[in-house]
Amino acid sequence: MTQSEKRLFLIQSLLKERPEYRQVETPRDPEGQRQLLRGLMNVRPPQAADPDFLRVQDGYLQAERYESFLRTRQGQKLLFLELGVGYNTPVIIKYPFWRMTAANPRAVYACLNLGQAAAPREIQKQSICIDGNIGAVLAGLGENTSQSASVEFVRFRRTNSARG
Predict the structure, then answer these.
(1) Model-level pTM greater than 0.90?
(2) Element housing 110 (H / E)
(3) How confident is the model at residue 144 (pLDDT cuts 50, 70, 90)?
(4) Most CB contacts within 10 A, which of 8, 100, 108, 123?
(5) What is the Rg, in whole angstroms, of the alpha carbon atoms belonging to the chain?
(6) In terms of Cα–Cα distance, which of 45, 48, 49, 46 is closest to 9?
């Protein structure tokens, strides 16, 4: 379910709860829908909610917070740190991190993964890819006492490129 579908589901669920809201029309634009949803949530009396409603609400609000975080930091220095994420479900973390790094010249994508540390050519200059066991690599960084030694350790392994 997309964010838009979740938002519409939540609005329709809240409108169905109260007979006095049945005449309320749902705006077509996302911002109008957000305002309506917020208003409906603010005036909803404390009462038990359907488990499906709570599940969708939780997913929707988490994604909204994440999107808000990214929007408010657009153009700022960001580190997208990926630890142990492979290619089983790349659409959840890996691909969005790549897109957001490509969209922000001040962003850095860092990947630490055994056998699957890679970045696409488009963001290679903004990427740090470390092919190794997370525990061993982090323990190795801890052994270095100076900050410059830690940076050199990472730069030494900054050579992999993404598949294809």
Answers:
(1) no
(2) strand 107-113
(3) low
(4) 123
(5) 22
(6) 49
Residues 72-97 pLDDT 10s = 888 899 999 999 887 887 888 899 89
Among residues of the chain, what percentage have pLDDT more than 90? 53
Q: What angle do CA 93, 5, 21 make, to 5 degrees?
A: 140
Q: What is the average pLDDT score of the chain?
A: 85
Which token pair is 22? 């049945």
Contact between 111 and 128 (Cβ < 8 Å):
yes
The SS3 assignment for 152 reads helix
Q: What SS3 class is residue 76?
A: coil
Q: Which residues contact 39 (CB under 8 A, 6 or more apart)?
A: none
- DSSP string spanning 47-66? ----HHHHHHHHHHHHHHHH
Which CA distances in Å does 131 have to 70, 95, 109, 114? 27, 18, 14, 5
The whole-angstrom separation of Cα 97 and Cα 8 is 27
Cα maximum dimension of the chain: 67
Residue 12 near residue 27, CB atoms below 8 Å: no
